[in-house]
Every structure is written in C-alpha cells, then in structure tokens.
Design a protein that fits this description.
With 206 residues, the protein is an alpha+beta fold. Helix content is 46%, strand content 23%.
Amino acid sequence: MPRPAAASGRKAWLSSPQFAGWLLLAPPVLLVGVRSVLDELAGRASPAGVALPLVPVSAPAGVMDLLGPVLAGLVLMVLLGAVIWRMGWRRVAPVAATAWVLLWVGGTAALLQRHLNLQGLHPLPAATATVLASQFKPPSLRGAGGTQLFLTVTGLPEPQRVLIDDASLRPLQSGDRLQLQLSSGRWSGHFVTGWQTLPQAAPSLR
C-alpha cells in the first residue's frame, strides 16, 4: 500500500495548477507534433508519389467540411456547460478532463490512420472519367488550391470530386474526359495517382 504521505502528495499534484496546465496543453502539443512529423515525411515524398483523395460529391466539403468539427465542439461545450451548471464543477471535472484528453488523442490517432492508409496504396486499373463541372480554387491556409473536378468515374457508383493542382486542367469543361490512375488505400478510400486528358469522342454519324 502507498504511504499516506505519498498518496497525499499525489493527490495534491493532481489538484495543482501545474497539473491542470499540463493537462490543458499536453494533448494539443502532441497532436501538433505528430502532424508536423507526418507533414515532414509527406514532404519528402517524390512528386511521383502524389495521392489525391477521390471522394463522393455527397461527402461534406468546403465550408461545412471546415465548420463541422467546430460545430460539434460547440455543441459539446454547451452540453458540458449544462451538466456543470446542474452538477457542479468538482463532480464534473474528472469527466471533462478525460473527454478533453480523449478528444485530442482521437485526433492524433486519426492523423496516424490517414498517414498509414496512404502508405499501403493498392494500384487499380486505369479508369475513364467524364467531367461534370470544374471549379478553380485559389490557394489558402488549408492547401495549395488547384482545379476541383466533379466527375463520373467508370467503376464507381456515384459522382466523385478531386482537387488537382495542375494548371493544364483549368480549361476543362463539362463533357471533357480524363484517364485516371487510381489506387485504393490500405483500409479505405480511392486516390488519384496519375491523370491525363483524353481527346473528345468523335460524334456519331447518322
């Protein structure tokens, strides 16, 4: 059994401002550190190793893709505030601290999963894609920008979108065709690893 002095010292440390500060800062620092390392590893990859996510048009994108986690966090904060108001901070503090740590650890695990998913790509047969629409996206804090293409892809059941930073694709219009080199992730998802434009199909004669 731990000695009373040791147990008392541990309890004092757990309730100290130093521990609260460590608990507040350490999980975000962990996520930022892991992300920096993964970005560095991705930056060492050759241009030939590019893998661009090909996702269904129905998946969240743009503003909602950015605001979705923020809105979820706000809802969680409102719920937590209601619980604190009803039960008191001292009773809720352990649960809130655990949820805080799990939130950041979960984000770190998601970054690792995404990185490892890209390390195990499985090449797929080349596919023909037809452009439904295209939209230029300027560079931003979220990425380098490029041409976002909305496509129908042979072998995939619903329209897809992909963002490609290639100036030669900007003139593409609805009806133009591309040949895509596709790969599947280690566990999930489709990725574009190569592309080239195809000539327009000759009109049928009647």
